[in-house]
Amino acid sequence: MIIVTGAAGFIGSGLISRLNQDGFKSIIAVDDFSKIEKTENLEGKIIQEKVERDELFPWLDKNQRDVEFIFHIGARTDTTEFDKEIFDKLNVNYSKDIWLKCVAYQIPLVYASSAATYGLGEHGYDDDETTLSQLKPLNPYGDSKNEFDIWALQQEKKPFFWAGLKFFNVYGPNEYHKARMASVIMHAFNQIKATGKMKLFRSHNPDFQDGEQMRDFIYVKDLIDVCIFLMHHRKNSGIYNLGSGEARTFKDLVTNTFLAMAKTPDISYIDTPVDIRDKYQYFTEANMNKLRSIGYDKPFHTLEEGVADYVKNYLASGSYL
């Protein structure tokens, strides 16, 4: 059996789809299934059992002998949430409990960290484990992810294989439920479809022109490929960046969305909301050398390829991965 937490979410549901395609049918889907807006993500997928998030640990105590791997993808990911207690409960303490079970039962683990740990990038975007304590995330979400990464490295007892993946800006199918936190591509698709235009955040940093803010955008299919690689690899434990390795502008992103919709780009700019303006990353770019060094050699989708696939094969038809 393979456990996937956050199973009904964006990345978790896509991962289950890929596991099914690869012949894995004994999937234990863990989530807060009271959130019905996410249930469509699991339609058509082969799942052995659904386990409520709060029931995972007693379930694991009973069934640990049959568990082959855990993908801990579930987390509170809202970067506009500032209640630290929520992140302590769902991102830090819950993750610690999963780690300790993996140690006790010798279950390999891949868990989701985040590029939000890098803050403004004062120390660059290298997945150097010796610099984690120097990082300055911009919000409680980033703090929670960095806190767990640091805790994991400090543990004397570790799963025989584990990997923390610092997800950069992920986009792709199955994010329909994410509302404000969905990718800019999805927001662009909806705005363009409704109005023929797209509004992007204006730059409030003199070093960047409007629309020239840059992020490392990674297509969810590439992220899932890495997860599958690590499940089979099971060595070289540690924390790894997971981005495309190439920063691109939001203007590039939206222009490609227009082109995938066969429409002429029409972009204007609005002020960045005040509640996130001073916590806004203007540049991120993953150094991917560490992952490449352990043997992962599959190329990532270019921005043009990923946006075209997402828009034409999923957003335009409302299809799920």
TrEMBL record:
SUPFAM superfamilies: NAD(P)-binding Rossmann-fold domains
One annotated GO biological process: ADP-L-glycero-beta-D-manno-heptose biosynthetic process
Residues annotated as domain NAD-dependent epimerase/dehydratase: 2-243
Protein residues bound to NADP(+): 10-11, 31-32, 38, 53, 73-77, 145, 170, 178
Pathway noted in the entry: Nucleotide-sugar biosynthesis; ADP-L-glycero-beta-D-manno-heptose biosynthesis; ADP-L-glycero-beta-D-manno-heptose from D-glycero-beta-D-manno-heptose 7-phosphate: step 4/4
EC number of the protein: 5.1.3.20
Record key words, sorted: Carbohydrate metabolism, Isomerase, NADP
Cofactor(s) the record lists: NADP(+)
Residues involved in substrate binding: 169, 180, 187, 201-204, 215, 280
Ranges that cross the membrane: none
Active site (catalytic residues): 141 (proton acceptor), 178 (proton acceptor)
InterPro entries found in the cross-reference section: Epimerase_deHydtase, Heptose_epim, NAD(P)-bd_dom_sf
Domain of life: Bacteria
Free-text remark on how the cofactor is bound: Binds 1 NADP(+) per subunit.
Function statement: Catalyzes the interconversion between ADP-D-glycero-beta-D-manno-heptose and ADP-L-glycero-beta-D-manno-heptose via an epimerization at carbon 6 of the heptose.
Entry's family note: Belongs to the NAD(P)-dependent epimerase/dehydratase family. HldD subfamily.
Entry comment, domain topic: Contains a large N-terminal NADP-binding domain, and a smaller C-terminal substrate-binding domain.
Protein name: ADP-L-glycero-D-manno-heptose-6-epimerase
Organism name: Dyadobacter psychrotolerans
Gene (UniProt): rfaD
